[in-house]
Design brief:
Number of helices: 8
CATH class: Alpha Beta
Shape: globular
Order of helices and strands: EEHHEHHEEHHHH
């Protein structure tokens, strides 16, 4: 897909599809066309945020924030809470978060190209969009979106760990680790758990 000729290049990625607790997050990064070359020089190495250490991701976010302050790009992260995930399902919840993120960051649909990771799709009125398998390893805008989403969601899980210290959210970020399952067996579910992901435990 030809990405030149657009005023805005938006990268989209989601984080938190599979955890047992916490929200799902969709990150969006809009790179302004006149600054695309400069942004590429600022972030010369594309890496999936999942392959970076937590410290490295936070350092990237500081650099992204500086680029945003300079007016080179814009970022946003949208969240959908566990209750909505239980009510609507994970796929519709991701679509909802994606639409929310685009609603915040998009300026002119007809002048916008949207690049999405994996199986994500933007709403149909975004005529110029492309879904890219492993897009977070191939497209800078998607890689940056992945990083801001991951760091933002991790911060939420660390905050939750202070309210519910018995669950170790700061360690596993809500994913189904052995320690997390053991905490669930001992303490039960919190309001931040996805009941639809834990039907076996609820039945017991």
């Amino acid at each position: 897909m030809k990405k030149s000729g657009y005023k805005y290049l938006i990268g989209i990625d989601e984080v938190g599809r599979g955890p047992l607790a916490g929200p799902v997050a969709v990150g969006a990064v809009c790179i302004y066309a006149q600054h695309r070359t400069r942004v590429a020089k600022l972030f010369p190495v594309i890496k999936d945020s999942k392959k970076l250490s937590a410290k490295a991701r936070e350092e990237w976010v500081l650099r992204i924030e500086k680029a945003e302050e300079a007016g080179f790009l814009a970022t946003t992260v949208a969240f959908v809470a566990p209750g909505a995930i239980d009510k609507d399902g994970i796929a519709p919840s991701i679509r909802q978060a994606l639409s929310q993120a685009l609603g915040v960051i998009e300026h002119e649909v007809e002048h916008t190209c949207v690049l999405l990771d994996g199986g994500l799709r933007a709403p149909a009125h975004y005529k110029s969009q492309e879904t890219i398998i492993k897009g977070d390893e191939k497209e800078l805008a998607i890689a940056l979106a992945s990083i801001v989403a991951k760091v933002a969601r991790d911060k939420r899980m660390v905050a939750l760990s202070k309210k519910h210290p018995a669950y170790g959210f700061e360690q596993h970020k809500g994913y189904g680790t052995k320690a997390h399952y053991e905490a669930l067996e001992k303490h039960g579910l919190t309001t931040h758990h996805r009941k639809s992901f834990l039907k076996r435990l609820i039945r017991e």
